[in-house]
Specification:
This is Group III truncated hemoglobin. The chain is an all-alpha fold. It is built from six helices and no strands. It is globular and about 45 Å long.
């Protein structure tokens, strides 16, 4: 079987592919899935478009994201304490999903940006 040639993340459609694939993994993940499905009770039809906007803005500076992710994670932390393990696992899943689907400058950038964001969140959310 011929392996599919990976391309870089080029646009919002690629971000949608990445985000959808990532959250399919998260939903059933034994380490962090419960935070989304049981604690936050994420409504995927609402959450996913917000994540498309978030990453679209991160990579392509679209300005189409409005929200306060830090506050959302602080509220989540009050409901069920988040740990360094949660953040590191999230990041590992994110990087694997990117690597499974894409390669290139933007793919590298989205992994670096995710790492920076998760470290900042971890430092500001976990007390």
């Amino acid at each position: 079987m011929k392996e599919k040639i990976k391309t870089d993340i080029k646009n919002r459609q690629d971000i949608k592919i990445l985000v959808d694939a990532f959250y399919r993994k998260v939903e059933t993940d034994p380490t962090i899935g419960y935070l989304f499905t049981k604690v936050a009770n994420v409504k995927w039809e609402k959450h996913l478009p917000i994540m498309y906007d978030f990453w679209d803005n991160i990579l392509f500076h679209t300005g189409n994201f409005e929200g306060n992710p830090m506050m959302k994670h602080r509220v989540l932390n009050q409901k069920s304490p988040l740990t360094e393990t949660h953040f590191k696992h999230w990041n590992k899943l994110w990087k694997k999903t990117v690597d499974d689907l894409f390669e290139g400058v933007k793919a590298s950038e989205v992994k670096i940006r995710a790492d920076s964001i998760s470290k900042m969140m971890m430092n500001k959310v976990i007390k």
